[in-house]
Amino acid sequence: MKYQALAILAALGSVAAQGVTGRIAPPAPAPPGCRPSVNGKFEIAIVELGNKGKRDLLVNKRAPTCSGTGILVTTLDDGVIKDAQGRTGYIASNFQFQFDGPPQAGSIYTAGFSECSNGSLALGGSTVFYQCKSGSFYNLYDRWWADQCSPVEILAMPCGEGADSVGGQRVVGTSVVTTTAVVPLSDGQPQVVTTTKAIPMCQIDDGK
Predict the structure, then answer these.
(1) Residue 181: which of 145, 138, 132, 147 has the closest Cα?
(2) Is omega for the bond preceding 102 within 30 degrees of 0, making it cis?
(3) Is 36 helix (H, G, I), strand (E, B) or coil?
(4) Could you tell me if 32 and 129 are in contact, meaning their C-beta atoms sit under 8 angstroms apart?
(5) What is the residue-level pLDDT of the chain in tens, covering all 208 positions?
(6) 3-class SS at 4?
């Protein structure tokens, strides 16, 4: 009997260690104007909710190349977001947005992401995420859960060959600004840090 119990526990441990391979999406549909797939790659940036000036500077700025090492570069296909290493972006059991391959057992959501016409990344029916301070950086969550958390938007910025262009814009130059970048770590937990980055300045068809 003792050996049988140990065998059952070992089997359960093996299943837990395998992680989640199925799709788990929020019940709410994506907001109007949001799409579950985009062409090419995109970087993500974080902007505080309501910071219109910074948002307008960052949103829909298509870079001719992706930043590469040190900046989180992702893809979005049928509601599933993945990083450059092919790991799935998901909401873990502690509400944190992170990447693993496959997602850890107990994951809350592993699918249901979309990119909206205004450049925001949505999960289910919401475009609001939360950055929560942890020392000198922030971690990202899908909900408020502590006093050190504040609401943010995740902006999807197309980059590299084959990336979608938005609104007929074309790159005419760059401007170096202080912004927030999402840095991928080896353990799959992206961190939000402050950095300086060259943001492409775009020109729409009417010359502005």
Answers:
(1) 138
(2) yes
(3) coil
(4) no
(5) 444 443 333 333 444 456 888 999 999 999 999 999 999 998 888 888 876 666 666 654 556 678 766 678 899 999 999 998 899 999 999 999 999 999 999 999 999 999 998 889 999 999 999 999 888 888 999 999 889 999 999 988 888 877 765 433 333 333 333 445 566 666 666 766 554 443 333 323 332 2
(6) helix
Q: Which residue has the tokens 């790159």?
A: 171
Answer whether 109's CB lies under 8 Å from 76's CB: no
- The contacts of residue 51 (CB under 8 Å, 6+ apart) are none
Pairing of strands 129-134, 149-159: antiparallel
Q: Give residues with Cβ within 8 angstroms of 206, minimum separation 6.
A: none
Tell me how far apart the alpha carbons of residues 80 and 52 are, in angstroms, rounded to a whole number.
28
Per the document, the length of the chain is: 208
Tell me how crowded residue 183 is: count the other CB atoms within 10 A of its CB: 15
Q: At which residue do the structure tokens 């289910």 appear? A: 124
Q: Is 76 exposed, middle or buried (0-12, 13-18, 19+ CB in 10 A)?
A: buried
